[in-house]
Structures are given as C-alpha cells and as structure tokens.
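If your schedule permits, I should be very grateful for your opinion on a structural question. Please examine both parts with care and let me know of anything in them that strikes you as inconsistent. The record follows directly beneath this note:
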Amino acid sequence: MPIFYPQERTALFIDGANLYSSTKALGFDIDFRKLLEHFAKQGQLVRAFYYTALLEDQEYSPLRPLVDWLDYNGYAVVTKPAKEYTDAMGRRKVRGNMDIEIAIDMMELAERLDHVVLFSGDGDFRCLVEAIQRRGVRVSVVSTMRSSPPMIADELRRQADTFIELQDLATSIARAHAPHPHPVHARPAEVAPAGRTL
C-alpha cells in the first residue's frame, strides 16, 4: 500500500524541537525548502505548520532567522514564548511545549484533510493520532528508530497508519554542506531550540 496518493489533501505538522533533536541525533540538518518540495510532490499539500517556542526576552534568538525564513517560504509558523527556569542542579533550562497548539490545529483542519504527516516522536501524541484517525484521516508519523535511544515512542509508532523513518528521507531533505576551511558560525537550525537544555 503506497504511503501517499496523488489526490490526497495532505498537511504537515512539524514539532520543531522534536525534529531538531532527531536530526541532530542522526547527524544531518534539514533543508526546509527541499522538505516542502518533497511533500508537495506526494499529493496536494494544503498546509505545512512549524511549531516552536521562542525566548522573547533575548535580544537575539538564534531561532529567529529560521522562523522568519519559514514564515516567508510557505510554512505557517506557530510560536509562543518559552519559559526559562533553573533546575534542582542549578542548570538554566528552557521549557516550551507546543503539544496543545499542534493538537488544536490538527483537530480543526482534520475535516478538510485526507492525510496528516506529524513530525514528532512524542508518545503524548498517541491519543491525538487516534482521534484524527476516527475522523477518517490517515496519519503518518516521521521520526527515527535509528538513533540511540530511538526518538519515536513505541505507542505512537504503533498507532500511526504509517511510520516514516527520518533517516530514509535524508537524501531528499538534508541540507548539503559545502566544505569550509575554517569553522563557521552556527546556523539557526544548529542551535538548540526552545524546549532543549541550553
């Protein structure tokens, strides 16, 4: 059974922090233009959402250039302020969970879609996936089992209609790295997004 059908109305829901962790574990960066082109060829791409939390009080957020680029290049970017806190060990951490925003958008759009592609391995999404499936929408989950430990929760992988191994997409969506004789500054996608330890 094919994963995609040409007549399908498809939408992408990208959990930015989760996708960043997965690609970092696999050792490649995403070219978001290529990602959009890849899925646009698979069917009728209705919308591509990218979700991330941002530290609003920072004078410069390393994620801001990526978010701005996505916003101008075909993605619907959903952001919210991240919360900064200090853990019991005195380490500065950032919390920015986007699960509710992803769930609301997916439920609202479900009646106009045939296929949802969720870029996340978070097991918390299992119930959401099941609810979307009950509305007659197929759900594919993109994450990886090839990292150590695997980034995909077993319960989410079992619930999805199709599991797409992120590493198998690398040839289509990875950013090409030009050789450079000297170290270069980190690009936006290489800097830990909100939701990750700084």
The helical segments are 16-26, 32-40, 64-72, 99-109, 126-134, 154-159, 166-173. The domain at 12-190 is CATH 3.40.50.1010 (Rossmann fold). The chain has one domain: 12-190. The chain has a mean pLDDT of 85.
